[in-house]
Amino acid sequence: MKAQTDLRHTCFYDFHVRHGAKMVDFAGWAMPLLYRSIIAEHQHTRRYASIFDVSHMGRLHFSGAGAPAFLEHVLTRDLADTVVGQSRYSLVCNPQGGILDDVIISRFEKHWLMVCNAVNRAKLGRWFQDQSTRFDVRIKDETENTAMVAIQGPAALPLLDSLLPEPAGNLLAYHFAVQHYLFLPFTVFRSGYTGEDGVEIICSATAAKMAVDFLLRHQEQASSTTLQPAGLGARDTLRLEAGLPLYGHELSELVDPIAAGLGWAVAQEKRFIGSEILSRIRRDGPARRMVGLLVDGPRIPRPEMEIWRQGKTAGRITSGAASPTLGRTIALAYLDSDAAAPGTAVEVDIRGQRTPAVVTQLPFYRRTNKGNDHGSSPRPVLHTDA
Amino acid sequence: MEAPPDRFYTPTHEWIKPDGDAALVGITRFAVDELTDVTYVELPAPGASLTAGKPFGEIESVKTAGELYAPVSGEVIEANAAVKKDPSLINQDPYGKAWLIRIKTGPNDYSGLMTAQQYQATTAKP
Hints:
The complex is a heterodimer of chains A (386) and B (126). By secondary structure, chain A is α+β, with helices and mostly antiparallel strands.
């Protein structure tokens, strides 16, 4: 771990410290792991709403007449039918079909914005430069000029609708809108990484500090504890319950999107980097697949732990957690395809102890309020702990 | 970081509180803060013998897993059933209710361990 002083700070660093965050090195950024407790922050997000600083994530800006063709070349997802104001989840693959990153690409009027993983930002920057020579495209890294927060949970949209000039509840899932507060523009995306409804907001670095103070002051005036800050620890257990893969755990250059269960994000009608191998893998079936596991007992499987079936190794754990919502131990793993069907019984080697587990349908957790998919959400009652 | 003066400390963040020829063993607030929410603890049964500096159990949290090391040699009298039942007790009260094991130590020399003041110096943030 680097000394804390070598780490990059997001616009919200002072905010984190003031709120008692335990700061950790995440991909070279000083980020809050937790403020009070990972479990408490997780549960607060599922019941009310949490605000997460995700400013460490990369924000790359693509413009020029050749930008659409360039993005079609480097992204696995079809973009031809996207409209302005729409976002799409996609993979970036190498020619071998290995995953370089998973990203969200958004179409603005005159440019495209890609949000990528912090850990892959420098690598992707180089990769895109190398691939862009025969395209009329300009690539600008906007990460450090901007800030990004996620506000997630059943109370997130009602809360924001009372604060924002235009209600975010009007946005369809994976759509966004540029709004203005006074003269400051910011973009509200109906997306997230927690399994809850909510938004992600990107604004300029200068506007960011004002915005958070405003939000929390509003909350204090309303003497409400609906919105609480949550750290990367809760973000990890929330996404795990929602069955969402994390780069560096479920996704890497050694894994292809079909094995990762992301075949739906790989276009079949276009050519792009990796398309030949990926269509072959789709046809023949991947050798292994990402699965969810329900694990017996309280011990948490950790990444790289071996999974056994019928006396042979059949795979490895990629993430594990004590699920606060299910009250059970859960894990994501890769298993040989013949052992990957839901209901298959396996054993996880947890520090020498063979622990029974069963393959289960993902996600582990699905929210009951499906408003995000229709664009007009039923409004949950605002709760306060006070 | 909080460390009561009525006990001794190890470099691996256990504490031991002498009580006649027995002692209570637990982990420090610093260790708890590093672990984050504790989810599981594996403790030895009564009668198990402990060797100073050797592992006697395991502790797991939301974030990580680690071993517990015996501050001194001795024999386990009792493992704390309350902590086994509710490991989050360790986050709430690591120096009190969430002691881990009670051990029989015999006449023991604690001079190899740290005082609260010495321990606090090792965990001070630069």
